[in-house]
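User: I'm curious whether this sequence folds into something compact or stays loose and floppy. Could you predict its structure so I can see for myself?
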Amino acid sequence: MKRLINKILVANRGVPAVRVMNTCRDKKIKTVAVYSTPDRLAYHVFLADEAIHIGEGPPTDSYLNMEKIIDAALKTGADAIHPGWGFLAENPKFAQAVQDAGLIWIGPPPKVIELMGDKTRAKKIAQRANVPTIPGISNVKSTEEVLRWMKEEEITFPIMIKAAAGGGGKGMVKVESEEELSVALEKARSEAKKAFGDDTLLVEKYIERGRHIEVQVIADQYGNVVHLFERECTIQRRNQKIIEEAPSPTLDPSLRQEICFTAVRLMRKIGYYSAGTVEFIFDSKTQQFYFLEVNTRLQVEHGVTELITGLDIVSLMIDIAEGKKLPFTQEDIHPNRWAMEVRVNAEDPRTFSPSFGSITRLEIPQGPGIRAASGVYEGADVPPYYDSLITLVMSAGTDRYDAIRVMDRALSRGLRVEGIKTNAPLLLSIIRHPKFIEGEFSTRFIEEHFEELLSMFKEKTTDDEALKIAQYIAMVSALGPQSWM
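Assistant: Here's the prediction. I'll summarize afterward.
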């Protein structure tokens, strides 16, 4: 059914809210921002056409409060809600409540979100669709169960414990030996309960030197399913991605075709529409890929796919929600560039502990081949309640070397954040590391090279700037007026 969208409430904050609002501006669609008390002066609030206060700082009082968000949409006369990523983006109850309120949900069907939100069920569906899955055991209750399975399947340590309802690296614990197993199960159970309200666990074989590859899929409500090729998301810190690129330097053309069409087959099987991502783990040793999960939302790293294809994925999501057909077929998609993205987080690059406060100085990278998506501005506060992501910096080039070169310029010359700490020194060290440049890395890259990466840090401070100015003044004082003055 076709319905026109004139006003969208963006049920998010920071980078995701700003990203959605920019596309809405392009499409001449009005936007409504929601904000918590600490976010009253946030960038997404200024950017929107209207803004409505929904509660105090803790997410449960504001950005996770479904009733307040839906009420805000109805009060402001919004036609639709876009959830961005994080918060309620993959909550089937929220998606259903949006539709029950007579609003348009910009995302996949609630029943599909629910289906894919449970890792155990998602794995079974993938198996039925003939998609390879990692050997594992579900609904784990005891260490004895795990050890029995390992013996029967001839699985050796390490193994990975995961929250069945999980995502974003929460409730995931790697186990190296039998002695660690009991404590690890309790830790994963506790984390899962706290993060998702569900302590159901599954255990899988741990893929050593694995690489994380995901396929971006877009589908309309008429059964047209198209992949927009893959992204490599292997560089991670505590199971959280921090650098992504497209295409993947890991795959040859035949593997690329196989993994992309496998993703399309699965999404067609579950009746998916809107934008979504199928995540795989790739075993470099055996050249095998295994299904991990389906992300039933817009991904943080969707921008690299937009850079190589020239498409606006948020715009397509809105069109699909309005009931429009995809304006292209698979044969029309021809990536012609290499793109890379880094996540600039407000955190100490040495300890990864969060860094909060006011941004006293902010310079966003510019120039050829650079795209930046920022959720902050100079003078903005970074509150302690939310995700630490403040800016996404993307680069594009004719090939991978070109994209790395542009990213080096963006991070070393273009980006400047003062007042809080960021992980920018770590990001720069990674993209300059010989192994990264060669494309030789796994999900353990940071932990394997951490000391070396630390030693590469070149951190500028305000003292450096003051020294530079002092040297300049001293030179002019000593030499007198110059010819160019």
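Summary: The longest helix spans residues 178-196. The chain has three domains: 7-106, 135-205, 213-462.
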